Amino acid sequence: MDRHSLSGLPFVKMHGAGNDFVVVDGRASGRRVVTPALARALGDRNRGVGFDQLAEILPDAQADYRLVFWNADGSQAGACGNASRCVADLVMAQTGRAQLRFSTARGVLAALREGDGVTVNMGQPQTEWDRVPLARAADTLHLPLPGDPAAVGMGNPHCVFFVPDAEAVDLAALGPRIEHDPLFPERTNVEFASPTTPDRLRMRVWERGTGVTLACGSGACAVAVAAHRRGLTGRRVTLDLDGGTLVVDWRTDGVWMTGPVARVFDGVLSPEWLAGVA
Question: What percent of the chain has pLDDT over 90?
Fold first, then answer.
């Protein structure tokens, strides 16, 4: 990032069901400004702004805009469902449009305004072992790990456990251990879910590169896909997370995810703070 060309860097803080994001809009400049170092510094909840993920908006020739996602540890994420919904809400408010197309590492996806929320198509799930990806061939519906989890790729890898009581799981202890299991060459997000009523699940999540979060959109999609493949639910599933409720509908054209969004505040990173980013 050329800090000398910046008098300050504007950003927007948003959240979807408690899953919080910093959004940096690079459409006007047409250039990327986020680096791993800047993502780590911004993600620090004491010395920066704090976020579960950062979303950078960029121009795109095939869609209305392109999204690049960053984790709090400075690594990139291939997909982020709640951030996609938050950015869509932001752009819809700016343009007055109710439908958008955006480009990610998953390809060109769609977003729709539905009532007070925003729905995004997260694309088709990846259930083949080498596309999740896993380090070796395995049954993605029954991984060779304690607890009999399932694996689902949603542009990033997910390891889904179905347990009697998701509330009782020690996420802080189990999450990092599973995230770094050798079976996952790119590490993995980790979800624990328990059925509460037909087609409804209680879900908690440990996110790769971030830790415990209040919600995870791609994780909710992965849980819904795994639950249907296991015969636990239909294709439309309601998921109650620590930060709110998301609805996932696995349709023929992809996995659609709906939920609330909120714009919390707008800010500008000072040139002095930016100059201190390594």
Answer: 92
Reported confidence tier of residue 7, pLDDT bands at 50, 70, 90: confident
Of 86, 159, 216, 221, the catalytic one is: 216
221 is catalytic: no
Predicted TM-score (pTM) of the model is: 0.92
Catalytic residue selected from 80, 86, 159, 221? 80
Buried b (16+ CB within 10 A) or exposed e, 16-41: bbbbbbbbbbbeeeeeebbeeebbbb
Q: Same domain, yes or no, for 70 and 156?
A: no
- 210 and 101 share one domain: no
Distance CA 18, CA 242 (A): 8
pLDDT in tens, 45-86: 999 999 999 999 999 999 999 999 999 999 998 889 999 999
**Domain that residue 246 falls in:** 150-252
* In a shared domain, residues 11 and 35: yes
For residue 50, the domain's CATH number is 3.10.310.10
